[in-house]
Design goal:
eight-stranded parallel beta sheet; TIM Barrel; alpha/beta
Length: 223
């Protein structure tokens, strides 16, 4: 199992002072910066693009930036985020005509690559590409909006993907995004996740350090 990663989603941050917000959450013990990119086409919302990623790098952010592309078509925007300083880039198979080609495009940009499965996307999409991935991201809500509740069936799906990853023998991360909170992160970790995206559960709270610490303690308790 990989070391625990807490990846706060800046979708829930105060964009009027985004650089400061990211600095504070990383100082509070977060590991990655999660970047939700929505296009009002693949999902019903519009958020941020590569210029914001580049601005955070220029601001001085050195932590991994985990870019989750909820855009269609996806290949056009991948090189832009690679140039803007993304560390990890993940995409949805439904948004790509050729999933393996999109994976190759991300790797060609020097980034680590992830595939994202929506709540109703079957896990067998991983059968032919798992060994090419650095992480698998399971959506535990329907993509498009922050602040949704965790879908319980994600736990069974996590167990299945964890088995697939373990059989591969490769150091592939298993990430979860949607409704992750201190009171359910232990169950999510017990089902096999090692990387946890949280938005309003962190940025919506008065003490970032306390929330991140509580999350890491809950994960450690079941490891």
């Amino acid at each position: 199992m990989q070391p625990t990663v807490i990846a706060p989603s800046i979708l829930s941050a105060d964009f009027a002072r985004l650089g400061e917000e990211v600095d504070q959450v990383l100082a509070a013990g977060a590991d990655w910066v999660h970047f939700d990119v929505m296009d009002n086409h693949y999902v019903p919302n519009l958020t941020i693009g590569p210029m914001v990623c580049e601005a955070l790098r220029k601001h001085g952010v050195t932590a991994p930036i985990d870019v989750h592309l909820m855009v269609e078509p996806v290949d056009r925007i991948i090189p832009d985020f690679a140039r803007a300083g993304a560390t990890e880039i993940s995409f949805h198979p439904e948004a790509s005509r050729h999933v393996h080609r999109s994976i190759q495009l991300i790797k060609a940009g020097g980034c680590r690559v992830g595939l994202v499965l929506n709540p109703a996307t079957p896990v067998d999409v991983l059968d032919w590409v798992l060994e090419d991935l650095d992480h698998v991201l399971l959506m535990s809500v329907n993509p498009g909006f922050g602040g949704q509740s965790f879908i319980p069936s994600t736990l069974d799906k996590l167990r299945k993907v964890r088995e697939m990853i373990d059989r591969s023998g490769k150091p592939i991360r298993l990430e979860v995004d949607g409704g992750v909170k201190p009171d359910n992160i232990g169950d999510i970790a017990a089902a096999g996740a090692d990387t946890f995206v949280a938005g309003s559960a962190i940025f919506g709270q008065p003490d970032y350090r306390a929330v991140v610490a509580a999350m890491k303690a809950a994960v450690a308790a079941v490891r």
